[in-house]
Design a protein that fits this description.
3-stranded antiparallel beta sheet; phospholipase activity; C20G8.02-like WWE domain-containing protein; globular; WWE_C20G8.02; PA-PLA1; 6-stranded antiparallel beta sheet
Length: 200
């Protein structure tokens, strides 16, 4: 897992930098597809979680963040403001025509799935951030590998994905694990450093 932050010192937690994304697959509702399925007598398919996420532009990101911290309900987005985001529902839909409605996320933590970084669900990100503030991994000194360790890893035949922690690495930080609640029950987070954590 990866956190987006702007770290200036190790005494205080780095401020969160939120980035807004919207899904482009697996719509929440697609009225045209629903009507077509009803007309053909086809059963409605179960929605799978979105895998493809697109960031909003810098301009839209600023507008969405401002609205999130105020009473503004909807924000016009994208080129020519042809779409709008419902801040409370976290949905994006076309303004002038009927079309699919997609999920929107305010992203502060990301998880890698099938080699692609996607924004965490906001409820999960909130729990991860609460654990981050509790365990304060940003105060931990950064340990640089020695020359011998670097040579050893370069000559090693082991294959290890960058996102897969070694067992001995996990054990160093195991006391700082944060158990997740709700739909994530049974999973926990181990904080590696100021910007990385393992979801186990």
């Amino acid at each position: 897992m990866l956190q987006i932050s702007d770290q200036t010192d190790t005494l205080t937690p780095p401020p969160l930098v939120a980035h807004w994304f919207h899904a482009i697959d697996s719509p929440i509702v697609d009225p045209i597809a629903l009507r077509k399925a009803k007309r053909l007598g086809v059963a409605e398919q179960t929605r799978s979680p979105p895998k493809n996420w697109v960031p909003f532009s810098k301009r839209d990101n600023v507008a969405l963040e401002k609205a999130c911290n105020s009473d503004i309900q909807t924000v016009p987005v994208n080129e020519d403001h042809l779409f709008e985001v419902n801040i409370k529902k976290r949905e994006i839909n076309p303004v002038y025509w009927e079309g699919p409605i997609f999920e929107v996320r305010r992203a502060t933590w990301f998880v890698q799935i099938d080699g692609t970084w996607i924004p965490c669900e906001e409820k999960m990100a909130k729990q991860i951030e609460e654990g981050y503030l509790k365990h304060k991994p940003y105060k931990r000194p950064t340990i640089q590998p020695t020359e011998k360790e670097t040579e050893g890893s370069a000559n090693s035949t082991d294959t290890l994905d960058d996102t897969t922690p070694r067992k001995d690495s996990i054990e160093v930080y195991i006391e700082e694990k944060e158990y997740l609640l709700g739909p994530y029950l049974g999973q926990y987070v181990v904080y590696k450093d100021s910007a990385h954590a393992w979801l186990l």
